Amino acid sequence: xxxxxxxxxxxxxxxxxxxxxxxxxxxxxxxxxxxxxxxxxxxxxxxxxxxxxxxxxxxxxxxxxxxxxxxxxxxxxxxxxxxxxxxxxxxxxxxxxxxxxxxxxxxxxxxxxxxxxxxxxxxxxxxxxxxxxxxxxxxxxxxxxxxxxxxxxxxxxxxxxxxxxxxxxxxxxxxxxxxxxxxxxxxxxxxxxxxxxxxxxxxxxxxxxxxxxxxxxxxxxxxxxxxxxxxxxxxxxxxxxxxxxxxxxxxxxxxxxxxxxxxxxxxxxxxxxxxxxxxxxxxxxxxxxxxxxxxxxxxxxxxxxxxxxxxxxxxxxxxxxxxxxxxxxxxxxxxxxxxxxxxxxxxxxxxxxxxxxxxxxxxxxxxxxxxxxxxxxxxxxxxxxxxxxxxxxxxxxxxxxxxxxxxxxxxxxxxxxxxxxxxxxxxxxxxxxxxxxxxxxxxxxxxxxxxxxxxxxxxxxxxxxxxxxxxxxxxxxxxxxxx
Length: 483
What we know:
zinc ion binding; zinc; Aminopeptidase i, Domain 2; 23 strands; 14 helices; 7-stranded antiparallel sheet; metalloprotease; 2 domains; alpha/beta; 23% strand; 30% helix; globular; Aminopeptidase
């Protein structure tokens, strides 16, 4: 399945590509569709970082993984499967190999967070006899895309006594949904003359939350100036035990309501919210769970906050990965080894080989002008590799060296992986980064490798099932190495 092999009538020196579908057997085509269906179900329920971590933990335990705390006292041996969770927003899955940890890991890293609308710490207010939520958008969004669509509320409220209540409202058919209203075109003359980036203000992304007043029929209630806000507070207190102050220790996110769907008469695509980057999270985790060989320790790292710079104590720039690795080394340290564990950790990080599993912009026939056609990836042509991302003169990137590129090509060729390569867009058109640069600071080899998307960062993103399946197979081959 080497994409580079020349075809009849074409020069064997020229790189040839073709749709994945054409290279799959009937059985593999069915496997592709079945795998995509599992992914579609995941995408429908895991709409926040917390929900994604919970899903990954449940899948891991079903596959024989245990939390590191359950295993640490016994020590670690080759074949053990453990996981670490960081504040319910990041997770590290590890399949311990027989080779010393100082020789490094085979690592696939991805991010769990996605652009969304967050509620402000003091969100609830009323205006014009309606109850609304103030919000602060998260990540890079086109604000106009979030108007006049059904939204669901997902999140948690943590009370001072430590108890936690969840909210997941707007997904079931019988649930109410929420929305951010838009201006009718009849009166939008001034709005429509503005640039897209200025037509909708961030402070205008206020969510409609209620429209019935509290009380009624008694004079005292009707004199209350905040009856519509009060009505929502009463509902929240009845169902969740909340008061207004409890919003301060809440994390509520507004996300597009509804399940992910198949797209097209032939069901070739999966459409849904949060595929950047949960498509890579799902495929990487499933690849590790299905890993069939390899003597190197293999790991999948799923982190938070990539969309806002990888900061915070759950992002890639935190010490979560380093700390977990140190715990692994202490638990796996053989008796009599006098090498300082700190030195083993540094050697492990430096010798690790990693794929930064993140999505790439696919060629869109409606917007072809922003991509270099010779260096663009296409839907249905396999997993996409990008030697570098960044902006302008490669700022904010980690560029894989030629040696590591050759190594990954060799692994993929041996495993029959169909792949393509490209850049995020034309030079100086824009750009963006991934967690690769924050992995590379340890000295490890890193390559960006993920699934092409259409409508990236929109409330409804599109991925091709062939690329999803090939990403799973690519990550599996990489985590298995030479077997």
